[in-house]
Amino acid sequence: MDMLSFLPDHLLVIILSFLAFQEAGRTSVLSRRWQNIWRQTRNIEFNERFFSYISADDEARRIAFVNFVQNWTDNYQPSVLDRVCITFSRPGNFLVLVEDCIRFAVTRGVKVLGLDFSDPLWNDELLELGNYPEPAYVLPQFVYQHGVLESLTLSSCNINLPEIINFHLLKHLALGWIELPLPTLSVLLNKFPLLESLSVKNCWNTDGLQVGGQNLRLRSLVVEKFIMSENPWIEIEAPHLRYLKYSGTMAVFDIEAGELEEAYLDFGLEYEGNEGMGDLLYQLLHQLPVRTLTVCTYMLQVLPLELISNGVTPVFGVAKLTLRTAMLSCEQKGVKYLLRSCPVLQALTIQIVPQRLVDLDEGQPDDVRHVWTLNALEYHCINQTLRVVQVKGYTGTRHEIGFLKYLFCRGRVLEKLHISIGEELLNQRSIAENRQLVIQTFQGLRRASNNLRINTYGR
User: Fold this and answer.
1) Using an 8 Å Cβ cutoff, are 413 and 386 in contact?
2) How far, in Å, CA of 286 to CA of 298, rounded?
3) Strand pairing partners for 365?
């Protein structure tokens, strides 16, 4: 800290403003001089969850939080703020305090504003049952006149679309825990000509989702746990989109995104699968010209059911593939399907996740013990292009072991095999013992690549 001590206070404030609010607060114990410098930070986060240590009593925590916020806003001296985030569930009895906080931020020219009034007890089950919570707050009128905003995050906070006419500088928008009628996003996107990233989480409607607009600059789109109760369809027209993450129910997709580089797909809210679902997944993958792809266990179980390709191997240009899987027998056809369909694959990640069985029309496949035998089919990517494989959360199941042996014996250009031991195994034995078990997996086998290096590690 000696070098920093030579700096004037106003430069220290600038440095502290790059730290998270709690991290800036910890600097107050460094010396007498530092006790109050952090109180001038331009990056403020009023979060009631920071006060969980105060008491087990919810009311006591809220009172401590309210007193902290009031004291802070009453004594804050700087006239400029960069970022203010307010996290306060069930604010109904403190609406005046919340409005004063927002006014405190706006009058100081804040550019990044986050308002989260969602209840931490809200979960996926609430959405799946259709018990959609009412928004806990309504965005105050004066915020709509704050034209310097560059980033806006709203959770359980209603907005008035006709009033949004001044956010011409907005680059980042995130919405959560609100109903989004069909035209809402298109209307918003047409009002934000500079918008680069859009995030929609835990939202719902009865129609579908449409993302598009004139001269759209959107580069990142995250749609997470979006519920469409009647007509599940998603239309995306974003010529400059680079990253797409979708998590929710199955839908009919119509995507035009010629510059798309990476996609993350998760249909964890679906519990049933059939040939029609497989066809939809097939069509979706053919609309994504991505080099980096992440798929879920639902896709691994349902995608092989598709009939559109008539048995002809589909070809995708994926170079980096992540499989979120428990490596169950019912997922192995999906693993093989994607290996066969990604002939230029260079990097493969196996992310071990909790087991989840999809209710398939044709029933679950037989529990085949030896899927990845040395007599299994050869795949072009395994023989010619795959250089790096990473297993995260390794649990040592028979299909994990079988697949690793298959890669060891067939991966002719494989250079790196990283195995991260899962918590379950680490709780049973030491990292050294787990490493020895992994080594024993390959004993007596002939490696296909002389350049292969195996690395095993824990946390």
Assistant:
1) yes
2) 18
3) none
What is the structure's pLDDT at 5? 67
Instruction: Name residues whose C-beta falls within 8 Å of residue 232's C-beta, 6 or more positions apart in sequence.
Output: 208, 249, 250, 251, 252
Distance CA 143, CA 147 (A): 9
Tell me the three state secondary structure of residue 229: coil
Residue 291 backbone phi and psi in degrees, to 5 = -100, -20
Tokens of 203: 């939202």
Report the Cα 76 to chain-centroid distance in Å.
Answer: 35
Segment 221-253, tens digit of pLDDT: 999 998 887 778 999 999 999 999 999 989 999
Averaged pLDDT, 1-8: 67
Per-residue pLDDT of 359-391, as tens digits, reads 997 766 655 666 787 667 889 999 999 999 999
Task: List, in order, residues 6 or more apart from 26 with CB less than 8 Å away.
Answer: none
Highest mean pLDDT among 19-23, 163-167, 453-457: 453-457
Whole-prediction pTM value? 0.90
Task: Return the structure tokens found at 239.
Answer: 């010529």
Spatial contact of 269 and 248, defined as CB atoms under 8 Å apart:
yes
The confidence band for 67, taking pLDDT boundaries of 50, 70 and 90, is very high
127-132's contacts with Cβ under 8 Å and 24+ in sequence apart are 127/202, 127/204, 127/225, 127/227, 127/269, 128/227, 128/269, 130/227, 130/229, 132/179, 132/204
Q: What CA dihedral angle connects 7, 12, 15 and 17, to 10 degrees?
A: -170
State the amino acid at position 11 in one-letter form: L
Q: Which two tokens stand for residue 412?
A: 């002719």
Instruction: Yes or no: say if 346 and 385 are a contact pair by the CB < 8 Å rule.
Output: yes
**Cα three-residue angle 295-296-302, rounded to 5 degrees:** 100
**Looking at the DSSP assignment, which residues form a beta bridge with residue 178?**
none
Residues 6+ apart with CB under 8 A from 162: none
How far apart CA 224 and CA 155 sit, in angstroms, is 13
